[in-house]
Amino acid sequence: MCGIVGIVGKSAVAPQLVDALKRLEYRGYDSAGVATLNNGKLERRRAEGKLVNLESRLQDSPLEGTIGIGHTRWATHGAPTEQNAHPHFTQGVAVVHNGIIENFASLRDELKEAGAQFSSQTDTEVVAHLVSSYLAKGATPKEAAQQTLARLEGAYALAILFENHDNMIIGARHGPPLAVGHGDGEMYLGSDSIALAPFTDDVTYLEDGDWAVVTHDGVEVFDSAGNKVDRARQTSQGAAMVADKGNYKHFMLKEIHEQPEVISRTISHYVDFATETFKPISEGIDFAKLDRLAVSACGTAYYAGLIGKYWIERYARLPVEIDVASEFRYREMPLNGNMAAFFISQSGETADTLACLRYCKQSGVQIGAIVNVPESTIARESDIVFPTLAGIEVGVASTKAFTCQLAVLASIAIAAGRARCTVTDAEEKELVRALVSLERLSSDTLGSGEAKIEALSRDLAKYKNVLYLGRGTNFPLALEGALKLKEISYIHAEGYAAGELKHGPIALIDEDMPVIVIAPFDGLYEKTMSNMQEVAARGGQIILITDEKGAEHVSIDTMSTIVMPEVPEFISPIIYSLPIQLLAYHTAVFMGTDVDQPRNLAKSVTVE
Ligand code: G6P
Q1: Which pLDDT score is estimated for 332?
Q2: What span, in angstroms and rounded, lies between the C-alpha atoms of 351 and 367?
Q3: 155-168 burial, b for 16+ CB within 10 Å, e for fewer?
Q4: Amino acid 36: pLDDT
Q5: Measured from the CB, is residue 597 less than 6 Å from ligand 1?
């Protein structure tokens, strides 16, 4: 999703702006641009595609100036062309924007009628024109910004640069995040603290509705009513989150291999290894008093929530309703004081998830957040935060954040079960032991199976469609497997509950349709085997992911069988995520796609 930076600096800022934009690349983008003030005049360079294109543009035609703004654009309104790339210029004004201006069409009509000439298809350009129109009527930059913000509906983080004002950037936040960085005689703006990490770890997060005047001397923050407000400065963790690929070819592969360590780190936050009990993680939420839990998330985080539902209902006997956030926020679910609402998000900034959180909060529902970015908006607005300690995840396709979300949900299920007396002391110890074994088992799985999966991926890359099947917690895993494959390899893939096969997808089965069956040797194995027989009978190619016992019992020929270590049923979705991720990763590598930044996708989706 779009990324914003701004620098009120002491030396030439264009290289620093590009450096900061590079740290926002992980969010996903399809064009980029920077603008500076050179002797009071606005100048910009923009380019389609990756930042290397912008860099070569800047090399051919450098930008002077010690103040500037920059942007990576993930197209919403208008194609990812140079013309639509930010910064947008109008009379005396440059604007970069993350979000969607929902009333842009009516504003554009109004501005056109007043004589404004539009040069892009973006919603953002109306912001620049509005600011210019107020300046033309005699407003100061501050007044023009404030008057403009009052006209905007929708979601935005903005940075505005004004001709002839070489000591001021105005930033504003309504929805997507915006951080102000404090330096030594320099000040910064950024979509997150990771962008600002090379410059400072001293940041102020703007709150929703805030706007800020950033100068060399510091920042003045105002709320939406124009009152000057104090917003705390804090030391960000962004610097620690600056990531590199190490010896790995892609961030995704590195993040897959980090899982034994980060899952274990996450578990240790919730579990007392010495006593084999859960730490009191649920302070503030009395699970015993709840009559239901609403869970909401998007994408991979939603699939983690689906698996969490199986666990929480099974171990804590607590009914869980789960929705994708874009549906939850509009379906008018009845809410009450005896429920809690949990939101799962790697970034903690996903617009739909955040909107659901706010909707529930307004109704007085207790809010829990399972988030990976502790400084994120979702974390800050929740009553209780359950951190996933996955560290920064750069690959757009979520891997380690997903398994850490699962580790947290598993912990919550058991902690809730203890509070509701549905899990005994002995069961708690056994389940804790299972969680503790995750590090070893995930490390064994990654160590032993990858070469075979890589070889199999070469075959999988030849197909155009793939089905994933699973039962129980392996059903959401089938959904996640299909998502992982389609998002990075662009092979069409669908996940189904194995029992649903005969209600539709079986019509698609032929020799050109590999079917990936996730079936550890558990209580549902035999049922899934029957579904596998149905596939085999129709000439479908089966890739079976199972354990040794499952492999011994299989009675049909498979295209390939991936044999996993034997794992306790409770934690099997976490361990079985690993071959699913590796299969998608290696297939994408064979397809030659941009694994870490797949086309059209964004890491942090800050628009609806
Ligand atoms: C995007 C990402 C997915 C992610 C989803 C939810 O679509 O590409 O990988 O699962 O957003 O993001 P969140 O940060 O809320 O977990």
Answers
A1: 81
A2: 16
A3: bbbbbbbbbebbeb
A4: 98
A5: no
Domains of the chain: 3-241 (3.60.20.10), 247-436 (3.40.50.10490), 447-592 (3.40.50.10490)
CA 496, 500, 506, 511 dihedral sign is: positive
Place of tokens 């920042």: 219
Please give the Cα distance from 101 to 149 (Å, whole number). Answer: 11
Compute the distance between CA of residue 528 and CA of residue 518 in angstroms, rounded to an integer. Answer: 9
With b for 16 or more beta-carbon neighbours within 10 A and e for fewer, the 434-466 pattern comes to bbbbbbebbbbbbeebbeebbebbeebbebeeb
Backbone angles phi, psi at 193, to 5 degrees: -75, -15
Residues of the chain with pLDDT under 50: none
As a whole number of Å, the end-to-end CA separation of the chain is 11
Q: Which of 2, 298, 356, 404 is catalytic?
A: 2
Asked if residue 87 has a cis previous peptide bond (ω within 30° of 0), the answer is yes
Atom of ligand 1 nearest to the CA of 401: 16
Most informative mutation of 251, 300, 375 for ligand 1 (most atoms within 8 A of CB)? 300
Of ligand 1's atoms, which has the minimum distance to the CA of residue 397?
9
- pLDDT at position 331, please? 84
> Which residue, judged by its Cα, is nearest atom 7 of ligand 1?
299
Which pLDDT score is estimated for 337?
A: 82
Q: What is the pTM of this model?
A: 0.78
From the number of C-beta atoms within 10 Å of its C-beta (0-12, 13-18, 19+), residue 103 rates as middle
Q: Give the DSSP H or E segment for 570.
A: none
HEC per residue, 423-470: CCHHHHHHHHHHHHCHHHHHHHHHHHHHHHHHHHHHHHCCCCEEEEEE
Cβ of 213 below 6 Å from ligand 1 = no
- Tell me, rounded to whole angstroms, the distance of Cα 135 from its chain centroid: 38
